Amino acid sequence: MADLKLENVAKVYGGKVEVLKDINLDIATGELIVFVGPSGCGKSTLLRMIAGLERISGGTLEIDGERMNDVPPAQRGIAMVFQSYALYPHMTVYDNMAFSLKLAKKSKEEIHEAVMKAAGILQLEDYLDRLPKALSGGQRQRVAIGRCIVRDPKVYLFDEPLSNLDAALRVATRLEIAQLKESMPDSTMIYVTHDQVEAMTLADRIVVLANKGIAQVGSPLELYERPDNEFVAQFIGSPSMNLLPGEIVETGPMTKVNLDGEGVAVSNVPTAPEDLGRRVNIGVRPEDMLLADGDCILDGVVDVVEALGEVTLLYFVAERGNAPVIAKLPGIHANLKGETVRLTAEPDKVHLFADGLSMRPKD
Amino acid sequence: MHPALQGLLTIVIGVGACIGYFYSSNIVLDKVIFPARGPHAGRNINRANMVRPWLFLFPALFALGLYLAYPVVETMRLSLTDRDMGGAFVGLENYQKMTADPKFWEAIRNNALWLLVVPAASTAFGLLVAQLTDRIRWGAIAKSLIFMPMAISFVGAAVIWKLVYDARPLGTEQIGILNALYLSLGGDQPMQWLTLPFWNNFFLMVVLVWIQTGFAMVILSAALRGVPEETIEAAIVDGANPFQIFFKIKVPQIMGTIVVVWTTITIVVLKVFDIVFAMTNGQWETQVLANYMYDKMFRANDWGVGSAAAMVIMLLVTPILVWNVYNARKEMK
After folding, report:
1. Chain B neighbors of A190, CB-CB under 8 A
2. Which of A276, B1, B236, B252 lies at 20 to 30 Å from B118 by C-alpha?
3. How far apart are CA A106 and CA A66, in angstroms?
4. Following DSSP, what letter does each residue of B104-167 receive, concatenated?
5. CB A233 within 8 A of CB A283
């Protein structure tokens, strides 16, 4: 039952190394927000600042309208799940979950009730007297979540909670977290991950962090369909979006771009007459590439073919130090290696970026 | 010859002999006894490899047998004989003589006192220092200073502390810092600290605590570093204050190491000899078992009772040693 507000938040280490700056974010009650970004972008640091484990160097953090910058972690109404679970190895599952309540001097009955309730939600009743070392990775993760639930926090913080699990367990636990969120519609959750799939499946809104700041905030599909800038365009989606340099040759409701090399691209991004001749990058997702006969964006030789069954990935010979263009075609096209292939895309799938920023008007 | 050259020569000869032994014994094994040729080459190689570990173990086994196992048996034998009767077998008479000696019981009582105080104090101080110096900039310097007494021999330490407890006649300058402090705080007479029965035991213990704190600190400091940072952060989020973090999160996680440090110091304490020997020689009710043994064995020339005392020390040390090794092994897993 809490909304959280970050205003001009900054983090500077040792007065010199700036890690984050000008972070502005409003998180509404009951939202599940995911922070994603490349490693080292400060997403965990931001989470730890919200938790109170790192000092906030500038700006303010408010939870429920109350300034939290100098409030100790335990009194912020937050609970955190750590990447390595951080269970207390010398305590049983029950004691792990009861620890915070014992510190808060709750009565035995209250503690018992809270722990049993959390254990019920997480199906941990049979393991309460075990030590963490006798649990599997998934069970440990559930205990870590249980430790949060018993405290009934306003905000749950998850720091890459699934990265220590194997692939199958990761999918299962991801679903469990999604279900947990659904069963607690009033609790706010902030979730840090570098895994796009986690971000896309769990988030109400995704915050993409890059270059010390927020690159874009939006729902998963918003980020996928209308990336604000080249960074987000390439970060969201796998394989990442192809960017090809070119020059605008026709403006208006539809824009035509002559690409360096042979190709021509048409986008439904409207442009003004003064944009004529402007250098831009067009962006096309590999999965939006279509085989073509006439005008094409790319006319190239296939270098590598990865046939995955449901789709086939084509890697084209890279030109002039560019990253290779990738196309994802549905079905099986195993015999295209070394062939010349012509590709195009629907105008509404062609993004335009000038100076790294999207030219698509916001609605 | 210059002693330094002698030392160097000893090292060269010793190391050379080691290399020579391993080299030549392996040559003999591989070329002469089980040569890797002829009709049984494969079998010979396997046999040579079965023998080889024993070649490497032999020097250690031999030395341990000669200097450890044999003395134990011989001491056991001596403790059952009497020198004055030409080494005749007297059964448990020496033990009876010993248990009838009030000095022996004084030594047992004092050893028990040492056993209670020194390991506890050293471990506690070591843990305290390890925790306090963990995050500060000059922590490394503080730790080096506290570790330094480890490099001083027990006798050297005893001499240093004898100066600390030194007493000069009233009116002359006190060079012992304890008396200097005592007088400046309003004491009327310089005290002969080491002659105050019962309390003088503690003045002796201080020396060993002073030495062993550094040892405890180094081991416990490493153990504290090994406590996962995230468990501490989780405790902070759970609302633990620094004391609760220390006692409920950190200490339980390094309990195994604490036990190892504690028992290791306990063994040192049971064998304590040099400090008492050099500072009081067991006078004024400060006798301990090891010094009692030395007294009987080499001053009273009563090898029977001396050996009996040695056996008592060994019996006391053994169970603690076993527990220590057991815990140390558990820690290493």
Report:
1. none
2. B252
3. 25
4. HHHHHHHHHHHHHHHHHHHHHHHHHHHHHTSSSTTHHHHHHHHHGGGGS-HHHHHHHHHHHT--
5. yes
Find chain B residues with C-beta within 8 A of A84's C-beta.
Answer: 228, 230
- Identify from B137, B231, B237 which residue to disrupt to test chain A contact, counting A C-beta atoms within 10 A and taking the largest count: B237
* Domain range A4-234, CATH class: alpha beta
Inter-chain contact A103–B244, Cβ cutoff 8 Å?
yes
Nearest to A88 among B236, B239, B249 (CB): B249
Question: What residue segments make up the domains of chain A, in order of their start?
Answer: 4-234, 235-358
pLDDT digits (tens, 9 = 90+) for A77-127: 888 998 888 899 899 999 999 898 888 888 899 899 888 988 888 888 888
For domain A235-358, give the CATH number.
Answer: 2.40.50
Using a CB-CB cut-off of 8 Å, the residues of chain A touching B249 are: 88
Residue B240 in contact with partner chain A when CB distance is under 8 A: yes
CB contacts < 8 A (A, B): 62
Domain locations in chain B? 3-78, 94-332
Domain B94-332: CATH superfamily is: MetI-like (1.10.3720.10)
**Per-residue pLDDT tens over the stretch A137-171:** 888 888 998 898 888 888 889 988 888 888 888 88
What residues contact residue B328 under an 8 Å CB cut-off, 6+ apart? B260
| Alpha carbon separation from A131 to A83, A96, A139, B199 (Å, rounded) | 19, 9, 11, 46
Contacts of A44 (CB under 8 A, 6+ apart): A159, A160, A192
Distance in angstroms (rounded) separating the CA atoms of residues B48 and B133: 53
